[in-house]
Amino acid sequence: MQFELTEEFIEQIEQYISNNDGDALKGLLHGFHFADVAELLQELNHEEATYLVKLLDSEITSEALMELDDDFRERILDNLSPSEIADELDEMDTDDAADIIAELDDHIQKQVIDHIEDDEHAADIVDLLRYDEDTAGGLMAKELVRVKETWTVAGCVREMRRQAENVTRVHSIYVTDKHGKLKGRLSLKDLLTASERTHISEIYIPKVDYVNVNTEAEDVARIMQKYDLEAIPVVDDEGILVGRITIDDIVDFIKEEAEKDYQMAAGISQDVEADDSIFKLTKARLPWLMIGMLGGLGAASIITGFQSMMTTFPKIIIFVPLIQATAGNVGVQSSAIVVQGLANNTLKGNIITRLLKESLLALVNGIAIALVVLVISHFLFFTTFLESISIGIAIISVIILAALIGTFVPIVLDKRGIDPAVATGPFITTSNDIFGILTYFLIAKLILGF
Amino acid sequence: MQFELTEEFIEQIEQYISNNDGDALKGLLHGFHFADVAELLQELNHEEATYLVKLLDSEITSEALMELDDDFRERILDNLSPSEIADELDEMDTDDAADIIAELDDHIQKQVIDHIEDDEHAADIVDLLRYDEDTAGGLMAKELVRVKETWTVAGCVREMRRQAENVTRVHSIYVTDKHGKLKGRLSLKDLLTASERTHISEIYIPKVDYVNVNTEAEDVARIMQKYDLEAIPVVDDEGILVGRITIDDIVDFIKEEAEKDYQMAAGISQDVEADDSIFKLTKARLPWLMIGMLGGLGAASIITGFQSMMTTFPKIIIFVPLIQATAGNVGVQSSAIVVQGLANNTLKGNIITRLLKESLLALVNGIAIALVVLVISHFLFFTTFLESISIGIAIISVIILAALIGTFVPIVLDKRGIDPAVATGPFITTSNDIFGILTYFLIAKLILGF
């Protein structure tokens, strides 16, 4: 069943496009899944992609457009007229259509909305534009199957048939009172087994999970994951059913969040991709490099403070990079585990226990590393006994210190309501660099007494 | 609708457990969602949790058990008899039950299976044990609604009612031929609108996505995401429908994969949690620290080689930590972006273009950092003109070099079929430390000519 996009196929498509051979393209791409069309579009330049979007059926291209990178989609839409964009939106679910409209320039938005054929669809889209994109309202779609508690099973099935026309997939059947307030849901199983004259009020399940339009997207994701929901209804402050969120939107949301955390840990402060412009990439990367630079300058000050060692104990100086690397690595490990624990809510016990455990773990790792370094420094770098002891004790101390900082900082940030993920990566590495090198020199000074 | 687990509530529960007051507990926890029960269990110690699992209805606890951490669940199961475990499995979907059985010791497995009441359920579970856990077979469940193409709509609805008893949620209705070969799927909408005497063969949709039992889990996740599927049927090599995979399992899989990548980038080589034993955490963390240590020792050798500078140009030495930090940070940024691009299949163009772009980006960042350092080193650290120039040029070169290594290594690993994520974190930091410091000294030597 798997579709494989080959070089030859892409060349063939490009050939047809440059020949303006619409019929051949339609024939070649007939029956293609929208996700495969999206993959193909992504391989073309934006003029070629625009050509295909105009050529192919909106039923396919509307869904394919939603799968594209934001930047690439924007460039295609720039080449479409308001009425062509409206054709695409006509085929989209309201949540996707609202996302697209929100991306357009203000003066085009109104023109596009005016061109949407289905007035109800257009009104739904406009309604969705009110909500913040990071809330349940921003994620939800208007398409859902709703039945009233006063209906009979027969009337319900009739009404469902009508509604299902506009709904791609029936996730759940929601039951409301006559004012539209969410009352519960109807299981398909019960609908199938009940007699035609039964009233919905007798068979619906009054227990239903829901979220408010203003619930934050992150909480919606957490709730849907926790309760294994495939769809969740959204209500307004009066309890009126206004939309539903499906799991596929949440899957995308989870992936984006994971990517943001990953980038944050790598010292990239915005959501960027390898293909973004150099300006955008610099904006996301340079600030973190500057933090690292400040750390490096801090370390330079510390070494300057202990500069006399360059002549008295030059061998202490040559192990500075080792201390720095170890402090950075331990800090990142500790903070990453804590950040994940916080995100997954699996961090048990109080902060003191956690710090004690982390210290013990650091002690074990520290002794292991220190022993190896002790032997190597003595036999390969010919350090004196006291120098070796200084280095060994410093490594153990630095590892413990780095582990404590790496554990403590994210927990404190989280308690203060700041995303602990900012504490990973360059931030923790940089502070550990400075504290690590300072500790190293202080211990060396104490033991060697220069 | 949100459930909030308070300290007082947990204390209350613990109190009832220590008083052995089963009735009070049942009353207090009546109507609780399994996910909330799981959250509660996780807050108790394993004896208390075991008490609750034995006390409460298996319909709830079986699902709650699936939500627990593996280690914690194992400790609870250790306290249950084979027949008590079988009671839980009786209520579980076959995929979950098979996962649990696989976790048990060999001699208990057979006893538990013998105690499962429903023979068909037991046979299905045993069948699932054959498959590797990282394949479609290992993810799939046996519960699904299947109809034969020769049936009428009326017969189909009758049969569906029967089958739906065992299926918690009807995701899709699959159509097979009389030998059980997957032919297509049936849309609920079409079933609702067709007349009772229509044959299924006239209304089913012959186009259906599916995977083979041996398809790798990662590919299943990719396919389900790409095509926005909520469930996918699984067939064996003969095309016989043998099971189905639902999106909630895939959501868990995606989360686990994202966490693994995150940990890998942080230098943690196994799937560990903050609450794991010190031994397990050490095993996951120490190897990476050793790699970092080797890097540090390598850097020590390089400085030893340029040791004369400590007396001739001590100011060059004090900027070693700055060079090292910058090289490490740039390398991690570059590799993270490439690793994500590879994972998402969004990396366009060939490797030469990519390296050129990365070089240009590094040049921009490098000049920015170098200018700041140039000014600070000259005015605060009183470096000479030539020393400042050496440091500035070295920073630019090191940033470009680190960016190239960070970009090149993951792409090459990926081309060779190795997970590029191993190249992030300590690995790239360590190699960049060494190359960075070496480059720095070589440039300083060239310009200062010591």
**Structural class from helices and strands of chain A?**
mainly alpha
Oligomer: homodimer
| Biggest pleated sheet of chain A | 3 strands, mixed
The coarse overall form of chain A would be: elongated
Q: What is the rounded Rg of chain A?
A: 30 Å
**CATH homologous superfamily (4th level) name of the largest domain in chain A:** SLC41 divalent cation transporters, integral membrane domain
Account of the 3D structure:
2 copies of one chain form a homodimer. With 450 residues, the first copy, chain A, is mostly helical. Chain A has 3 domains: 7-133, MgtE N-terminal domain-like (MgtE N-terminal fold); 145-252, Roll (CBS-domain), CATH 3.10.580.10; 278-448, Tetracycline Repressor, domain 2. Helix content of chain A is 66%, strand content 6%. The first copy, chain A, contains 23 helices and 6 strands. In chain A, the strands form 2 sheets. A 3-stranded mixed beta sheet of chain A has the order 1-2-3. In chain A, β5 (231-235) and β6 (241-246) form a beta hairpin. In chain A, α20 crosses α23 (426-448). The N and C termini of chain A lie far apart (73 Å). The model of chain A has no long low-confidence stretch (mean pLDDT 87). At the A-B interface, α3, α12, α13, α15 and α16 of A face α3, α12, α13, α15 and α16 of B. Chains A, B: Belongs to the SLC41A transporter family. Chains A, B: Homodimer. Chains A, B: This is Magnesium transporter MgtE.
